[in-house]
Amino acid sequence: MSDESGAARGRASAPALIGADEIARLLTPTAAAEAVADVLRGGFDPESDPPRVNLPLAAGELLLMPAASGAYAGVKIAGVAPANPVRGLPRITGSYLLLDGATLLPLALLDGAALTTLRTPAVSAVALEHLAAPDAARLVLFGAGPQAYGHLRAALAVRELKAVTVVARRPEAGAALVAYARTLGVEAGAGTPDDVRDADLVICCTTAREPLFDGRLVADGATVVAVGSHEPAARETDSALLRRSAVYVESRAAALREAGDLLIPLNEGAIGPGQVAGTLAELVAGRVAVAPDRPRLFKSVGMAWEDLAVAAAVHRAQGRPDRAT
Prior knowledge:
Helix content is 36%, strand content 23%. By secondary structure, the protein is α/β, with parallel strands linked by helices. Helix 2 runs parallel beside helix 4 (112-131). This is Ornithine cyclodeaminase family protein.
């Protein structure tokens, strides 16, 4: 077959439509985390990832996140609509267009919110695998939305949790997450921010714009993961925790551009740029040591290469060819 006829056939092929239920069926949280780690093990440098484009709107925010790596390229168009939950609608909306890296022909169109719900905990799972103490068993989880459920599953995939304490703004949502945790065989209950004092792991996945707890209470050797914000003026952790912690990020450039958890203490003079001890890629490659005698904080802002890694893994799990022909 000629190149011309092959290209014509590629143009005529409609991209696969992959909805939320199928994404969940095709890729487990563990497989999603492995897909993220595989990209890093393959030598991809997250510092090369294009910055996300943010467009403020009356309803919230529109995000455009393009990426390319290996055999694939792609772009996520995501909406953040803070008023949606009271309407019974998801706060995060959008779609992901996966492209063949060689021809840029469409391969698949994925549910963007479901992809984000899977990819963010996957990134956290990779960080926890390298940062959390091997015997970490007590988790304090802030939040009770889709990301909280995903992060509970992610934490259970990498550590044998014995107790989960849920701290939620809405008691009924917190109670539902506690009940879900118990179905997974974990002792669970509602708690308060001061419960971080006894935690081995603290995971923050909220829409908070101010610190959720007193960072002085976090034990040396505990691991904190904060994923809730990518805005320079919003944070889930306080300056006290940042001063005490070895900080790890997905990308230094992205963190210093978007992570309020770092930027606010930096602007206060509470920390310096050297507070960042390493990146996710350096952890995966074993190029950075993990501080044994201080808290470890992983601050995620969410990056386009992560969406691409998981979207490509979903596409491969469908058994479809890598090329749009």
